[in-house]
Amino acid sequence: MQVTFWGTRGSIAKAGPSTLRYGGNTSCVAVRSDAGTLIVIDCGTGAHGLGRQLMAQAHGAPIDGHILISHTHWDHIQGLPFFAPLFQAGNHWQIYGPSGLGGSLSEILAGQMEYRYFPVAIDELSADVGHHDLVEGTIDIGGVRVDTQYLNHPALTLGYRLEVDGATVVYSSDHEPHDHDLAAGGDVGQNRHDDAHAAFIAGADLLIHDAQYVAAEFGDHVGWGHSTVEYVVDVARRADVARVALYHHDPNRTDEEMDELVALARSHAAASGYRGEVFAAQEGLTIELRGAIHRGGSARPMGGAATSALSPDATSAVVCARSPDIAQALAEVVRAEQLDMIMTSDLYEAFEAVRTNEPGIVLVEAVDDDGGFDLIAAIRELGEPYGADVPLIMIGRASARWHRDADETRITEWLVWPASSFYIRTKLRAWLLRRASRWQNAPPPPDELRRLASLDALGILDTQPEERFDRYTAEISTALDVPIALVSLVDTERQWFKSRRGIDVTETPRDMSLCAHAILEPDVMEVPDTLADSRFAQNPLVIHDPRIRFYAGMPLTLADGSRVGTLCVADIRPRHLDEGQQDTLRRVAALVVDELESGAG
Question: What is the pTM assigned to this prediction?
Fold first, then answer.
């Protein structure tokens, strides 16, 4: 994989003698696989130079490629009307990016090419150009696996994780720490959203990350949607990233000041124990990646393509707020997103609205008597289909409350008031789009690094089938009368089957794995009907072969407490295990653990 920087600056282009070494063009990175697939990430002003080079090298031959837009702020799309390959007939380009609820990607991009701004409309481009709206998920682009995840930015923004040729590069531009205290550095694992961000970039050979500020500057830019170098280094350390390219440079920063920023980042890395390489992205710099620390097995099938279409039941919102300013702001946001709204200041009325209407999202103001928390806890106790998976957004005046109450009340996200309407709209869109997909990736367990080390120590991954494991999948299949039984080991980015009965594949991506959810709990996880469970309803293993409708998995827990995988069973029809059948699953799983540990190493 080859990665080249064409634009490294953030916010606005800054050409001139003070930015010669690091560059003055805005965001644009080109990635080319060994097979020739070209992916351009963001189309800031740097795309102009890239386009000219592509045209010169092609000598009139067709130029095909793909463009990933992280978000549609100007510094990430202003180069699109000046990207020469889009104006040559015979070229084929596909453009991907996030859209909101109020318009498609093509409509948003067309806005900057209206006649009042630009002489050529987007539908007059000579090349064959397609547009694709994305949410969180996985797609295959010319043999490159691309995973997407929402970033923390005032506009709906996607980060991109690209895997090909045994290497991984992650592009994370325009992202702010969820916990603002982490801007000065600290343990990223203490905040679940920041830790999820680290999980998204885990094990990358190259991380390209927004690092517009240093900690001393962050206080004046909270809510602008950008990171500090201290935060980026700590995320990289948490994620065990090999190399970090500081990116989205502040337009006011000169080359000499960029040198100082890099020195600060390296000093923080040394003090915090991060051993990877830290440098600042420079225009024209090309990096060859060959998978220095990339883990994983053989080529695996890709997950289903993401889609931004909202499901029909995600068109309403329940808003419960007592403070006039918060109530007014939330009402304006919900109306702006064209959602049906039930507005109340009464906790009981809000509860009844959720119970009887099944809204797509619930927004609740935190109040001094903790009534808001009581409402959220009551909604969660409703279970399926009313309150188990509905996004519950809490709005409060102090960020500290999030840390104390999130676990017990299962708040989806905490927003600190005051917040701009645009920022709240972005959060609203993100959670509605996540829910619309009805397919959730399992978060990593808290002990993920230790768990993976224990799994590696077994020395069993990618070994040949063995009768000592096959006898247990045969036994459990017969005992529970199920067509599918597996000894599934959950690796970094895949689940690999040491023993399989009823399916042909030897592994699947981890984000398709039901077992990745099962290892989060110590006991049997049962899903009586996957189509009725929002975590799995659109999982490729459910909607395509083998069309799993029932699942039950017992974690394989080693002596050190690590849950390295599951003994799981599945069926193509909904069903339920009684307590005796669950005990059988537990008993056979314990025998599998004995086999794993007896042959370790």
Answer: 0.62
